[in-house]
């Protein structure tokens, strides 16, 4: 390096330019809510100096090359690398100060150990009590990563923090940890959301960040006191953008077994058994009754393949198993598949609720299976890469998700102002036939796994038929869908009777409906209140259409009991307002 001495240094010339004020200097405005400076003053902006000086003041020669200048860029926020090294200590301090008067800056070894024990207990509680929406997590691998300090430090901070927030919140009803627990859960929620935004800003985006975003969306739609429509929908859009950014829904685009769908068409899965099968033969297969000779879904479940499922994930025992022989890459790929399908399940439930209340829905990337320009969905169904059955696309898990896609496509077509009457008529007829096929496929199963998922496949088939009867009926003849009336009365009565049965059974415990878990109380599931309210809305809509359908009123009364129980122990002004309007 050249030595700079007084002899070869040129004296700096006196500047005649007016000195800039602090407000005029180059700076970056920061978002509100920043931590204070080291002097305890509010942090409002970061001044940028070194990157503005291409030449050292007073020197005629360039001291640094253009590429070298980039080394000195000052980040607008604290170093993400530093946060990755300290987030675990911050979480320990947060837990330690929640149960004692410990100094968060100097925790003793015993305090750190106790805090770590509490965090582990909360994570275990989450997996023991959560429903299948989170079964995309391979629990043994999750805890292997969590207990290793090196791999834990390289994990998304928001994932662990958000998991703890969700767990604590579900324990914090009025008969649980109460108001203090909910306040602690909100504190962790804020930390997790901050960590998630920091990762997004830094470009550190991976499947674990998507998992954290799904947990955040579940929290925002769970029925807590500060819940709002804005936060609920915003969290879902963040999740949707992360999945789209990572292109998780197209990871199987190169696999010929992955199902793809056409734009503005009913999402039908066509499995061609013979390369020379004609279209008419294929259509006949799709619309004819389906039988499953020796259904083997039960032998492919997590409960059959993992001895610890009953202890650690009792409500996931009917989900597809994982293959222990998979490589690291195959495990990650299957995690991404199941994450996408769980997101579909979650946002479809939100869509069903908003439709029942005749509210504005969400147009999301994750719920549109087709696109004219590129694949939006080229994804194997959960367990399809592991399932060795005769027709994995007709497994109980695949059929459930196919009913969700069918419902989402109908809801989207209803909102499509560009579709012609002829297109809607053709779509409605095809959707009705697909609903018949899927119902026959579900009836053909002998595995008895439907109850573990609250018969959600049949639920979506029914509301799909309601949608067709309400929205598409005027575009097509009634004989084409074989209803004989605006809706099929027999199926309606069956659906209503089932809702009344569910309402009565869940009061005795969720396990009486699903057949899984011994402590399946709905007290840990405040979001169920919104589901019961949507069922009341549908029952009353059916009664408005046919006043002789008095069973709809009986069902509405039966559904009030679980809502009363949940609203009493989960204070939520938004829920109270909606429930009061319904009553």
* Unreliable stretches covering 5 or more consecutive residues: 1-12, 46-77, 272-289
Report strand %.
under 5%
Distance between the termini: 81 Å
Total separate domains = 4
Order of helices and strands: EEHHHHHHHHHHHHHHHHHHHHHH
Mean pLDDT: 80
Q: Whole-number radius of gyration?
A: 28 Å
Strand arrangement within the widest β-sheet reads 1-2
Largest sheet: 2 strands, antiparallel
Helix fraction by DSSP (H/I, runs of at least 4): 40-55%
- Structural category is mainly alpha
The helix count comes to 22
Total strand segments: 2
The shape, in one word, is globular
Description:
The chain has 583 residues and is mostly helical. It folds into four domains: 1-76, no CATH class; 80-245, no CATH class; 259-305 and 329-487, no CATH class; 488-583. 53% of the residues lie in helices and 1% in strands. It is built from 22 helices and two strands. It has helices spanning 66-69, 80-99, 109-129, 139-147, 149-153, 157-170, 178-202, 207-220, 229-246, 279-287, 302-305, 309-312, 328-356, 396-415, 421-443, 456-472, 478-481, 489-506, 511-514, 528-545, 551-569, 573-582, and strands at 27-29, 45-47. It has a two-stranded antiparallel sheet. It is globular. Residues 1-12, 46-77 and 272-289 have low confidence and may be disordered.
